[in-house]
Every structure is written in C-alpha cells, then in structure tokens.
Write a structure and sequence with these properties.
Length: 173
C-alpha cells in the first residue's frame, strides 16, 4: 500500500468505517515491517474497545490492538499517522524479541524510526475524555457509585436498597 493511501480512504467519509481505516493502516505498517525485516509478521486483530486516557493499547499475548475512537474522531489524520504505527511497533517488537524488550525501549524506537520513519513519541497529544461524574452512596456494608441519572432519581424520591445488607443507600455528598 502506498504511503499516503490513508488520506484518500479518509476522504471517502461514510463509505469506510473507522475500524476499516485503522485496520488498513495497521496492515500497511506490517507490510513495511515485512519488507524491512524480510519476515512475515502475524497481523493482529484490531478493535475500537479502548477507553479512557490511552489512545491505543497493544495486547501482545493476544496479538490484539485496541484503539480509542474518542481520540480518533478528534483528529483522524494525526491518529492514523502516530497512534496506529506506535501500537503496531509494539506488536512487531514483541514478535521479534518476545517480552525481553522494554515497552518503549531501543528496539521499539528503532522500528518507529527506521521502519516507519516516525519520531518515536511515548505519549499522544489527544484530549482525554472528561472523567465520569459519580455520586458516592453508602449502605451499612459498602460504598456504591451512582450515575447522575440515578442520583437525580433519588432526589425525586426513589429509594435504593443494598442487595447485601438491605439498608437504604444514603448520599454522602
Ligand atoms: Zn506504547
Ligand atoms: Zn450494604
């Protein structure tokens, strides 16, 4: 696949979904690694299950890469050109060196620099999602986290009972 092929994919908009775009880019990275090392690396499965502060995570034993669609949507071009190769490099390093190589050590940096031609940055520059608002409630035995929706119901008079101790849950502001 040519170097800039992802930009034409992105411009197709709704025809091609996010998972296809990131998976294509992962395969593009693996094609480069195959050519560089004269090897055939095992392509990982990709999904969009990543949540929270990480833009992506490489699950080495499962040969799986999870991407954060919240961050992808902030800047697809940036995500495709930085986050995808970052995670692909983790998988490639693992397939060459096993778990002896450090996560962002010299092997990983070399793959980023020499195979992908990218400055090896450990961190991303995307905004992280706002922390979920939780409301703390207590019964006689435990602490319970309520969503805003449930907290509103309590304020409207709904009573919640702990399944374990049968006490009513009290808001501790
Ligand atoms: Zn990393
Ligand atoms: Zn309880």
């Amino acid at each position: 696949m040519p170097l800039n092929s992802h930009s034409s994919l992105l411009n197709n908009g709704s025809n091609i979904d996010t998972l296809t775009i990131v998976t294509n880019k992962v395969h593009c990275c693996f094609d480069k690694a195959d050519a560089f090392f004269g090897n055939t690396f095992n392509r990982p499965t990709c999904n969009l299950k990543q949540r929270g502060r990480a833009a992506g995570t490489a699950h080495l034993q499962k040969n799986e890469v999870r991407f954060n669609v919240f961050m992808y949507s902030q800047n697809p071009e940036e995500f495709i050109s930085t986050v995808v190769p970052h995670e692909a490099a983790h998988i490639i390093v693992f397939q060459i060196y096993g778990s002896s190589a450090k996560p962002h050590g010299k092997e990983w940096q070399a793959v980023m620099l020499k195979v992908f031609g990218i400055k090896p940055n450990r961190t991303h520059c995307f905004d992280v999602p706002p922390p979920k608002q939780v409301f703390e409630y207590f019964c006689d035995c435990n602490r319970h986290e309520f969503t805003k929706r449930r907290h509103t119901k309590v304020q409207q008079g709904v009573l919640y009972i702990c399944k374990a101790c049968k006490a009513s849950l009290q808001f501790k502001g």
